[in-house]
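PROTEIN DESIGN WORKSHEET
SECTION A - STRUCTURE
LENGTH: 311
C-ALPHA CELLS:
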C-alpha cells in the first residue's frame, strides 16, 4: 500500500511532510531502519521478560535488577525513536539547529541508559550465580566480580556524562571533548570481556563438581548464547569508528545504533533465559542440592530426592 492510500490515522504529519508510522527508508533517510530494528528487539525482550516472570514470579534481587533493566531499555528505545524523528539517519546539513539539538540530547541520554542496561543485565546473572553457588571461595569471587562491574559502571556513566564541556555535554561537535574513540572502545571492550567472564563462570563453578558430563554441558549451553551479545557489541564498535571519523554524524550513526540496540536487548534476553523456571530448576539441581567435600578438594554433588506425596 502506498503512502497516499494509507488511512489518515496511520499517517504522521510533521518535520516537513507526511509519512507512515515508522517512516520510510529513502536515499536521504535511513532512520526508519533504526526504528524498526529497535522495536522488533523490544518486542523480543518483552517476550523474554514475560516468560521469565510468568514461570518464576519471585521478587528476589535478580528480579529487581532484570525488571529495572527492562524499564530502562524501554525508555532508551523511546529516546532512540525520538532521535530518529529529529534527524538520526538523515544528513546533518538537512537539519535545523533545533532538530540537531534535540537529536544530540536524545542520543546522549540513550547512550548512558544503554550502559546501565548492560550493567543491570550482567548484575542479574551474577546474582543468579550467587543464589546457586554454595562454595565460599566461588561466592567471594562472585562478589569481587560484582564490585568490579559496579565500579566500571559508575566510572563509565561519569565519563559519558562529562565527555564534552558543560553546560552542553551532549554536544559532541564542541571543542574540548574527550577522545571519544578511546572512550567508546574502552567501554565496549569491558562489556565484551565481562560477558566472556560470565560465560566462563559455569565452567569455573562446576570444574571440581562430580556430576554427569551431560548435565555440565547443559549448564554451559544455558549461558553460551551470551556470546551473541559479544558479537553484536563488536559489530557496534566497528561501526562506531566510521561514525566518529566523519563530520556527518547523524547520517553515519545508523549502523552503530542498530547494532547497539540489538546488543542491549539481547543482553536482557540472554539474562532472562537462566531464570525461566525449568532452566532455573535444572541449574539449582546441578549446583546447590548438596555438596560433600572429597579428598583433594573435589566436590561430590548428591541429589536430594524427596518422595512425592501420594495422590
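SECTION B - SEQUENCE
RESIDUE ASSIGNMENT:
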Amino acid at each position: 500500500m502506498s503512502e497516499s492510500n494509507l488511512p489518515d490515522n496511520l499517517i504522521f504529519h510533521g518535520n516537513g511532510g507526511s509519512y507512515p508510522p515508522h517512516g520510510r527508508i529513502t536515499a536521504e533517510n535511513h532512520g526508519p531502519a533504526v526504528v524498526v530494528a529497535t522495536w522488533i528487539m523490544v518486542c523480543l525482550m518483552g517476550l523474554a521478560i514475560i516468560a521469565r516472570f510468568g514461570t518464576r514470579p519471585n521478587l528476589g534481587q535478580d528480579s529487581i535488577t532484570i525488571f529495572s533493566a527492562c524499564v530502562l531499555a524501554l525508555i532508551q528505545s523511546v529516546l532512540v525513536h525520538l532521535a530518529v524523528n529529529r534527524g538520526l539517519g538523515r544528513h546533518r546539513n538537512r537539519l535545523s539547529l533545533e532538530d540537531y539539538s534535540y537529536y544530540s540530547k536524545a542520543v546522549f541520554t540513550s547512550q548512558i541508559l544503554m550502559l546501565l542496561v548492560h550493567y543491570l543485565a550482567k548484575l542479574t546473572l551474577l546474582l543468579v550465580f550467587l543464589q546457586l553457588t554454595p562454595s565460599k571461595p566461588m561466592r567471594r569471587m562472585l562478589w569481587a566480580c560484582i564490585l568490579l562491574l559496579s565500579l566500571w559502571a559508575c566510572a563509565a556513566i561519569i565519563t559519558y556524562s562529562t565527555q564534552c564541556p558543560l553546560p552542553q555535554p551532549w554536544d559532541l561537535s564542541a571543542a574540548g571533548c574527550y577522545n571519544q574513540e578511546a572512550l567508546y572502545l574502552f567501554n565496549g571492550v569491558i562489556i565484551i570481556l565481562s560477558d566472556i567472564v560470565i560465560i566462563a563462570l559455569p565452567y569455573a563453578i562446576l570444574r571440581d563438581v562430580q556430576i554427569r558430563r551431560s548435565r555440565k554441558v547443559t549448564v554451559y549451553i544455558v549461558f553460551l548464547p551470551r556470546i551473541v551479545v559479544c558479537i553484536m557489541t563488536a559489530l557496534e564498535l566497528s561501526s562506531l569508528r566510521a561514525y566518529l571519523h566523519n563530520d556527518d554524524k547523524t547520517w553515519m550513526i545508523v549502523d552503530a545504533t542498530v547494532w547497539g540496540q540489538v546488543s542491549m536487548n539481547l543482553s536482557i534476553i540472554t539474562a532472562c533465559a537462566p531464570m525461566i523456571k525449568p532452566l532455573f530448576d535444572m541449574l539449582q539441581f546441578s549446583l546447590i542440592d548438596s555438596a560433600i567435600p572429597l579428598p583433594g578438594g573435589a566436590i561430590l554433588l548428591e541429589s536430594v530426592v524427596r518422595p512425592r506425596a501420594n495422590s
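SECTION C - NOTES
Residues 97-132 form the longest helix (36 residues).
Residues 1-19, 288-311 have pLDDT under 50 and may be disordered.
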